[in-house]
Amino acid sequence: MNRTPSASAEDYLKALYALSTAPDASERVNTKAIADRLSLSQPSVTSMLKSLQKQGLVSYASYRGAALTADGRTEALRVIRKHRLIEVFLHRMLGYSWSEVHDEAERLEHAVSDTLIDRMDAALGFPDFDPHGDPIPGRDLTMRSHDAVCLLEIEPPCEVTIKRVMSQDSAVLDWLGQRGIRPGAPIRLVHLSPFDGPAEIAIDDRAIHLGRGLASMLRVRPVDAD
Amino acid sequence: MNRTPSASAEDYLKALYALSTAPDASERVNTKAIADRLSLSQPSVTSMLKSLQKQGLVSYASYRGAALTADGRTEALRVIRKHRLIEVFLHRMLGYSWSEVHDEAERLEHAVSDTLIDRMDAALGFPDFDPHGDPIPGRDLTMRSHDAVCLLEIEPPCEVTIKRVMSQDSAVLDWLGQRGIRPGAPIRLVHLSPFDGPAEIAIDDRAIHLGRGLASMLRVRPVDAD
DNA sequence: TTTCAAAGTTAGACACGGCTAACATGTCAA
DNA sequence: TTGACATGTTAGCCGTGTCTAACTTTGAAA
C-alpha cells in the first residue's frame, strides 16, 4: 500500500502542498480549491483524496477538507524538488527562457528518477532557487524558507531587489522579462496609488506601472537588508 | 482519431519497429513476438493492435499479424529518436555509463517534447549514434543505415573496429565495458571455434573469449574498409 | 488428409482516473 | 432558528490498458 504515487497522485499532492502553504491558507484544504487548481471536477477530487488517504499520504474527513500527512508532504516536496531543478536545468543548460520551463517541467517531473535529479543537481552546482526565484528543496526534502516580502507590503519610495516572481503564466513572464523584471533585478518602488491603484516602479530609470495583480506576484527585499 | 499516442502505444510501436526490422524478420509481426518482447499477455497485444489500427498506425488482420503503416513507422522513429538522444545526453552531459542510460531513457522518451529533444540534439552537436552505436534518426525521422556487420560473419584473423553493441542488459554492458569492448574500440578477431564454439578476440593484446551469444551482439567493420 | 500443438482471439473481469446527475451537508444571513 | 446557496459526496458511467480462462484458427507432422 506504499507504492510510488502515480503521476496524477503527484499532481494532487503538489496542489495540496501549494494550497496549504499559501499566504492566507487554513490548515485543511477545500475539495473545491483542489478541483479549481487542477481543473478537475469535485467528485474526481473526493475520490482521489480517499485513495491518497488509503496510501497514508493525506488525512481526510468527509466534508472537512484534507491535509497532507508527513509522508504526503515528503512526496510533495520530492516532486517540487524535481520540478524546480528541471526548470533550472532547462534554463541554464538548454537555453529555455523562464517562460518556457514550466510546462516542460510539468511533464518531466513525473518521469525523472531520484538518481537523475541528483545528477542534474550536482551538474548545476546545487542551486538554491529556480528561474522564478522559487526555493528548491534540498536532498533532505526540507523547504528552504524565503525571507522576501510582497512588493505591496513595502513603503514607497524604496530600493529593492526582486527575489521571486510568483507566476507560471508564460505571457506574463514574457512581458515582465522583456522589461527586465526578474529575480536579481534591482528596482525602485516609486509610488503606490491608493484605492487598489497601480504600483509605479523604476528599473534602469525607466518607469513601469503595474496593476495590483501583477505587483502582488513580485517578492522583493529592500536593498539595505543585506 | 489522430491524437498523440499514449506511452503504452509508443512502446508497442517501438516493439513493432524493432521486430519488423530484425535481421531475419518477415513483413508481418506475430502477436506472440510482441507479447514476449513487452512482457505482456497475448490478449493485451491483440486489443492494442486493434486500437492502433483504428488510429491508422498499424495494419492488422486477425490471425495474420501486424505491420506498421507509414504513420506508425514515423511515430516509432520519433520515439526511437527521443530514446537515443536521451541516452547520448545522459551519457555525455550527466556522466551516466552506457549500462545505465537505457532504463532512464525508457521512461523519459514518453515525457520529452519534440522541442526539448531538438534542443538536446543541438546541445550535443547533432550526434549520429547513441552510446551503444545505435543510429539516431534525424529530425526528418529517417533511419540512417548502418554498414557494420556481425562479428560472426567476419573471416578470422581480421582487424576490425567495433561499431555497435546490440544489448540493453546492463550486466552484459558492464562486463563488456570493463574489458574495453565498446563502439570505436579496435579489436582483432583471432579465431572462431567450430561447433558453436567461442570467438577469441584480442583487445590491447589481451585475449578474450566470447560465447556466440555475446559475439553475435557485436557489429564491426574491418579496419581497412575506411 | 487428419490431427494436434502452438498461436490467436473472444469474453469477461479489474484498477485507475476521469466524468455527469442527483443527493447531502454546512454555513451565513435574515 | 431557518432557509438558501455554496460546497461536498454518492452513484453510476466511460475509456484505457491490463489480466485469466475458454474457445478458435493455423499450419506442420504423421
List keywords for this structure.
two-stranded antiparallel ribbon, six-stranded antiparallel beta sheet, globular, alpha+beta, DNA-binding, 226 residues
Description:
The structure is a homodimer of 226-residue chains. Chain A is of the alpha+beta class. Chain A has 8 helices and 8 strands; from the N terminus they run H-H-H-E-E-H-H-H-E-E-H-E-E-E-H-E. The first copy, chain A, has helices spanning 7-20, 31-38, 42-54, 70-94, 101-108, 114-123, 170-178, 212-215, and strands at 58-60, 66-68, 149-150, 158-165, 186-192, 199-203, 206-210, 218-222. In chain A, the strands form 2 sheets. In chain A, strands 3-8-4-5-6-7 form a 6-stranded antiparallel β-sheet. Chain A has a two-stranded antiparallel ribbon with strand order 1-2. In chain A, a hairpin with a 2-residue loop joins strand 6 and strand 7 (206-210). In chain A, helix 1 (7-20) crosses helix 2. Chain A is globular. Chain A binds chain B through residues 90, 93-96, 104, 107-108, 110-113, 115-116, 119-120, 123, and chain B through 90, 93-96, 104, 107-108, 110-113, 115-116, 119-120, 123. Chain A binds a DNA duplex (30 and 30 nucleotides) through residues 6, 8, 30-32, 40-48, 51, 62-63, 65.
